[in-house]
TrEMBL record:
PROSITE patterns registered for this protein in UniProt: D_2_HYDROXYACID_DH_3
One Pfam family from the record: 2-Hacid_dh_C
Keyword Thylakoid (UniProt): no
Sorted UniProt keywords: NAD, Oxidoreductase
All copies of domain D-isomer specific 2-hydroxyacid dehydrogenase NAD-binding, residue ranges: 108-282
InterPro entries documented for this protein: D-isomer_DH_CS, D-isomer_DH_NAD-bd, NAD(P)-bd_dom_sf
PANTHER family: 2-HACID_DH_C DOMAIN-CONTAINING PROTEIN, D-ISOMER SPECIFIC 2-HYDROXYACID DEHYDROGENASE NAD-BINDING DOMAIN-CONTAINING PROTEIN
Keyword Oxidoreductase: yes
GO molecular function, one term: NAD binding
The name this protein goes by in its record: D-2-hydroxyacid dehydrogenase
Amino acid sequence: MRDRLVVLYRGNRPPATALIERLADTVYATEEELHYLLPGADVLLAWVNITPAIREAWPDDPHKAPRWVHASSAGVDSFLFPALVDDPQVVLTNARGVYEQPTAEYVLGLILSLAKDFPGTWEHQRRREWRPRPSDSITGRTVLVWGTGPIGRAIARLLRAVGMRVSGAGRAPRTDDPDFGTVHGGATLRSALTEADYVVLAAPLTQGTRGMVDAPVLAAMKPGARLINVGRGGLVDEEALVDHLAAGRLAGAALDVFAQEPLPAESPLWNMPGVMISPHTAGETTSEREALVEVFLDNLTRHIEGRPLRNVVDKRRGYVVDGTHPA
């Protein structure tokens, strides 16, 4: 008997629907329809990343809940509600492997844009103004990457390759990490913040990381440093960030994620000097959709054949734990 698969989508369905339908009895649900179509499903493919619809549509009867949920994203905070997390029969997987290198490239682009003030150059071009001016060098600058998972590691490797001095911040302090060298924990984190020219956030959003970049952390950062967030908006106290930017303690920020998305038009972040805003696109590429569905199809084949799934999320921690590197 074939599995019943529900594909949650918004706007466009995933590519390769013919292949998906060949492997499972497939129905497609919008966020509004999910409440009616999810009960009794064996598998849920969430082609929508951040949505309350899954929590709201989750069956009260655990026997009617899907046994496997696949997130077409790296972050899974939208999926970590009690009914799913507490049910040991529900396996959660994600799209680990798709977003690492694109996000690392995006971070390098953001650092170069901030250091070279490309937005200012483009504004002078728009005004037809010829304004030669010096810019910062990134070679030898210090970067603290907060989040030592696969995305943080890809960022660290690329920034090291262009001559930046990189360390990490994570749950398990160490001095011999292959990608970061030193990974700072609670005892040395503040001193690392005082030395970093750039602080890059690449951590998942969990109960332990929510609001981790608060006013005291921002105050501990090196004067003139820049903050880059490609993790989750909930990692940062945005009001405190606005205050520190307005006071001139930080030189700028590049923000791809926000506590509320889309970022409200009235947010002061839109017009603050030295701040770059992007609409949660750090990991997106023109080939993203094909790569995402390839990961799911591989896992769907494994599921049908009874083989172990890839990218199984530790639902208590909120991310994939594979034992390759400490967190």
